[in-house]
Prior knowledge:
Layout: H1 16-25, E1 28-31, H2 32-41, H3 43-49, E2 53-57, H4 61-73, E3 79-82, H5 88-93, E4 96-99, H6 111-120, H7 144-166
Parallel strand pairs: 1-2, 3-4
Amino acid sequence: KSMDGTESAELIPNGKVAVKHFIGANELCLTGAGFEILSNEHPNFLKVIIADVRVFARMSPKQKERVVNLLKSLGYITLMCGDGTNDVGALKHSNVGVALLSHPYNANKPKVEEIKEGNDTTNAAANQPKLPVQAVAHRRGAPRQIDNRVQRHQASVQNAQERLEKM
């Protein structure tokens, strides 16, 4: 039922036409609890709608990993952004995993400098994303294969960013 109680719908629409109408008429958000119910009780319906879900919310790390693996098993290329702590499994299993760190650990700096630097990065301007590197300069002694891989990876990330911006 809707929040005001005026509309109600079946949990699982019957037939392909009803499913297509359900997906087309709604913006889908799936919570961790909803994901568990669908994956245990209605796995075929989950496979049909998973690619059209716009928001995954309140999911455990294992559930995030299962979402990525399910999308990959359906033939989709996956990109996962996460903080790198709880999201490690999903980041590792995705085709492109992006760990977002506000200020990474640096073993060469004394602790006092790290704390001071961490406090400085709380400004909104400091947390703005950096522009992507357009080209990789050839490093002396490094094989060209590594440079080619880095360039392909950067192009893939840039394409994924552009697709996400269009959504």
